[in-house]
């Protein structure tokens, strides 16, 4: 925690030195209680994130982000789909999840090189990032099959975005094949020993009546990663994934959106082979601009069996920096059924 406190102090100093026009910053703190209603297990989970973007030369900026996590108690439900997207197995006062230099070239290209995180680069659309289950914004075929830079890990790599036409975005990223979470190993780029991982997508987005835009995304994953065993060579795994967020109704100030997700491995794997999800979100509810949602997820795994998760959640803003989010999860696996309740309190400050 001391390291993150020091980072926050430096962040404020930088903001004062450079001024608001050159610096964007944000601090997000979350605390939540978890309760497995099936067996009585409880846990208390805490998350702190600091983000900093600093303008450098024309079209360039430094992009940084760090997190701290602490949980009192272990997972109250141990499924692969999960129920909390801020829980980590190990408490750490400091994890650097992004430290990169980005360069925008006109209105056509954006290139960033450095320490990066896949979730930040690809899974931040409004409905996808709204739910508390990690599978909604961290597709299981990626996080379960590759040792790569999904939460809370990061890896050295390059990220390219191309904007060929209005509304279209093509993304391609290449990372070190194995992600790390300690400062002394995060900046290693060793493709000969740890392989490579690539993810990319083509998205089309257009504005609709209401707060959220429509989004259609089709993507791929490819990994050349170390295999298992004493004389193991590299394993090559490929997959496809897709995402649709489609507003379809605007009624009495609310916007109703359909969420569809899918992913499949194109080569046989002994782990997670496929995943799909469907959901409904409603934003702009009442004068508080609350948001509600319901989602169903199913995962196919050759080792652990199939799992189905359902989530119902509400986001209730109390003001422009404080919100609460209760969630109820129904999780069905081949060996048990669990009902998990979650109550999250979030504080967000900054000008990002």
Number of alpha- plus pi-helical segments: 6
**Strand adjacency order, main sheet:** 1-2-3-4-5-6-7-8-9-10-11-12-13-14-15-16
Shape label: globular
CATH class: Mainly Beta
End-to-end Cα distance, whole Å, is 23 Å
Q: Helix fraction?
A: 10-25%
The chain-level mean pLDDT equals 90
Number of domains: 1
For CATH, the homologous superfamily is named as: Carbohydrate-selective porin OprB
Secondary-structure element order, N to C: HEEEEEHHHEEHHEEEEEEEEE
User: Could you list the spans in which at least 5 consecutive residues all have pLDDT below 50?
Assistant: none
Q: Tell me the total number of β-strands.
A: 16
CATH fold topology: Porin
Q: Strand count, sense and closure of the main sheet? A: 16 strands, antiparallel, barrel
Q: Any idea what the CATH architecture is?
A: Beta Barrel
Structural class: mainly beta
Rg, nearest Å: 20 Å
Proportion of beta-strand residues:
over 45%
Could you walk me through the main structural features you see in this protein, from its secondary elements to its overall organization?
The chain is mainly β. It has a single domain (2-350), classed as Beta Barrel (Porin). The chain has 6 helices and 16 strands. It has helices at 2-18, 118-122, 126-130, 140-143, 183-186, 191-194, and strands at residues 23-36, 42-55, 60-72, 92-105, 109-116, 155-162, 168-176, 196-206, 214-226, 234-251, 254-265, 272-285, 290-301, 307-317, 322-332, 337-350. A 16-stranded antiparallel barrel has the order 1-2-3-4-5-6-7-8-9-10-11-12-13-14-15-16. A hairpin with a 4-residue loop joins strand 2 (42-55) and strand 3. It is globular. The two termini are 23 Å apart. Keywords: Signal.
